[in-house]
Amino acid sequence: MRVVGEIIRRSGAVFIRRTIGSDKLYWAVLSEYVKTIVKKGFAPLEFFVEGLRSRSLKSLMPKFGMMHMVLEPFFKGEVYDIKLVPISLSYDRVMEESLLAQELLGIPKPKESTMGLLKARKVLQENYGTMHVNFGRPLSVRHLCQGKINRSQYNLIPRDLPQKPSGEVQACVSWLAYLMVRTQEEGVLISPWSLMACLLLQTPLLTEDGLPWHQLAEKTLWLRRLVLDFGGHLNWPGKVHDQDVMSSAVALHHSLVRLQAGRVYLVQEEEDEREDPRRPEDDVIKAAVPMLMLASYRNQCLHVFVRPALLAIAIHVTKSVQRDELFAFFCFLRDLFGNEFIFIPGESSQDFEEACALLRKCGAVHTSEQEVMVSNVGLEVLSFLQDLLQPFIDSYQVMFVYLCKDGINVISEKQFLPAVRNLATKLILSGELHTYEALSSDMQKNVFSALRRLETLTKLNASELNEYRVKKAAVGQISEILCGKIPPQILQTTPDAKL
User: Fold this and answer.
1) Strand 139-140 vs strand 87-91: parallel, antiparallel, or unpaired?
2) Are 67 and 177 in contact (CB under 8 A)?
């Protein structure tokens, strides 16, 4: 894409390598270039904190390299302050929605080219709704870092000499990066379709039986009130009838759902003409594409629900009302799903209190200093929140089952992904697994990264294939805790403690 690349370059963009690796010279040149822009201040510097695109439309864990380059002039006292402006992007409909779902299923994406872009005029003629760009309130690094970092350490070394950041600096950069992504999430505008996707995913046999339109509309309006109670920002036109808003959302996503005879059905791709017989595994992949597309739109609003949802699961699994037991299980879930959702490091207590406050605000629970009790009207809210995260729990359990199988003692991520996908496909065909999200490569990679972080997968130093030893007992214990076989009393209650 030489022509498009040149246009982007002349617009002020800077192309950098996807991975820098051990190239110290490249790192030094790029770092000095970025720091010069920050110190001179002749133009704002825009970059994506996550470092890469999200195929699932869910916020990704931040990368720290670029953030550290930007912040280093402040740490060294070369600038008085740096202002960080979180920018949130919201889409009604994503152009490459089906391609992203196919990539998650291991299908390679088509090669990009200028000619391919010109040939895609038919795709560009489609209606993709609106895109919202929200510029948040500028955040002062000087104010945020007050009391978090001792900058005098940089006075002992000439500023021009590169130096490895201390643990204190790394922790500060990590905290700021997570804070930025979390602030970006709070600025996202949630579309009506995102709410409808949450409900459609909780409907069995959506392709065959569908869901009555009046039932979907009624539940969507209920969910809209819940989002507002939880502090979410909705892109819901105020001067348009609610039925028209929801009907237009369905019409916009005609490639995914259809409204027929008062029921909403999931649309599947048409059968390809092929000579060889179709395998059952092919049918699973075909059915998974629209389900992952639907899940991606649900993911756009997960940040609003994830904290109260974790508490709802803790209440359901532990069957306890004791605040300390619920907090212990909440911390366990927060730690386990730390690669799946955005949690600011060291703020487990704040997240738990936020979850309690939100459930209390919508009337789902009553709280005291010692207990969290479900109210008579709270079952509907808690049931919805549990079902919202159930696909994640089921998918994680599939991968735990695979790692605990006999003969799986050492494994690499390259071996893990296809093996888990094969197991999930077999479980779906047998009817033992009801979510297609276990087939998603993003979900599989997040599980692998979480187990590495929790040290249940330990890297073999002598391996050149990035292989890891599986601690089966630890994986099995996590699985049993997740399904409630191990009581919450034995869990560590220290916030952010590794399992």
Assistant:
1) unpaired
2) yes
